[in-house]
Amino acid sequence: MPGFxxxxxxxxxxxxxxxxxxxxxxxxRNNPDLLEHILDTxxxxxxxxxxxxxxxxxxxxxxxLAELNIRLQELEDxxxxxxxxxxxLAEYCDSMEVHVLQLEHQxxxxxxxxxxxxxxxxxQPPSSSPSDTSSDSSSNSSDExxxxxxGEDCGMGRQDIxx
Length: 163
Hints:
4 helices; single chain; mainly alpha
């Protein structure tokens, strides 16, 4: 981990010892335990500071891990939802393929029926059907009506035209 190693701690202690050596000379020589006590205290404080740094980094990493776990859960939920939607779309696609096949079959049958009807109509001899004669007779009768209207009904007889 950056910022912490045993080697770093040793270097800091050595720097501390070098820095306090001038002051150690001022300590009474008849109390060697005092220097040992000062060094132990410094070492404990340095270890506590490093431990606090580690605890803070651990806390930050745990927070980040919790955030990542939440994000992971969101992504898993999204993946599951997308998988469900994919399955639904696949089922819909399959049902549409079946429907298209049915429609193609119906279209094929309708086209075959239309071809059969066309063949039966083209193979029949042209004959006058009742509807054809009625339209011909109606057009003939309308011509006759025109002659009738043009002549006698209007008061203009054939005699008048020939004169």
